[in-house]
Design goal:
single chain; 140 residues; alpha+beta; Alpha-Beta Plaits; four-stranded antiparallel β-sheet; 19% strand
Amino acid sequence: MSPENDKVTRMIILGPKAQLSQSELLGKLHMLELPLTIKSTCYGAVIHGDDKIVQDAITKIRDLDPSNIFTKDRGFAPGDPRRCRAKRGAAREGFHQLEKEYELLEYVCDALKDPKKVSLEESKKISLDEFRKIVQECEK
């Protein structure tokens, strides 16, 4: 086994249109039978272990519903007393940021499921005469 400082922690976040529930996600993670610490959360799960094993688990889990399962680094292992809500007695730092990000996930899910080609037009400069005309119209 590798030392604790060689391990990583990732959050697995289920999007609002995910085809599996939080409890199904946990079941699938456990069925991978990988040497991971797995913690249930309100948004999905937290997994902790060797980087390669964590990445392998994420790849396999995302294959279940690629446009609705997201991951994010978490700087602290599950249960770390510096961030554990049970020990601190309040929402952990970053939770409110995660709430805001979650509000946008529906749009990200839709874009991943049905990508559209986007082309941006470069804005063109207007002439000084045209600018003066616009200013004069606004002053009326």
